[in-house]
Amino acid sequence: MNLGSPHRLLAHPLDGAVVAVLSATTRPLTGREVARLAPEGSQPGISKALGRLANEGLVDRQEAGNALLYQLNRDHLAAPAATMLADLRNALIERLRKELASWELQPLHASIFGSAARGDADAGSDIDLLVVRPADLAADDPRWRGQLDGLTYSVKRWTGNALSTSELPEADIPRLADERPPVIDALSADATTLVGPDASRLFRERAT
Hints:
By secondary structure, the protein is an alpha+beta fold. The chain has helices spanning 13-23, 31-37, 43-56, 79-86, 88-101, 115-118, 142-159, 173-179, 182-190, 199-205, and strands at residues 29-30, 59-64, 67-72, 109-113, 127-133, 163-169, 192-195. The protein is elongated, with a radius of gyration of 21 Å.
């Protein structure tokens, strides 16, 4: 490990992808398996990342016949920090769920979708949030608006990314479920549910 510049340990974007895969299992994986499970990167790119991390000692590498097997070295000083950084997307999801659970006025449904849900958002990406407002709640209720504004501020502080909220009244769900605009299919395909039923179930059950 480069003790003079330890912050460079995960300097390449694919290093974090490799750590995310290896931190999720205790089973040794081949480079091909890591590349298949990684959210980004080609097999040659993942192989180079595995080599870099093995040279730093964060990844254990061992021969198994004609293959090389890789495991996260959990005894490494940087393992806790590297694992935490690789898991920040899940940490955001759990923080959003906790924040939404504390709301006085609960949404019928809330989910993130788009790049944040897929795991390919970058520093310039908005975090897309769908919130379904219950039928008995006025859109201009100051408590409701205050909750939404507070969450927008919090997400910016937590991540540096802007929160882009799509607010949908409950009454619009049957119409959208019937019309099936592209955004509904996108929600059904990749949304991560934070509150209420899954988006695919919500728009299926409310169809007229």
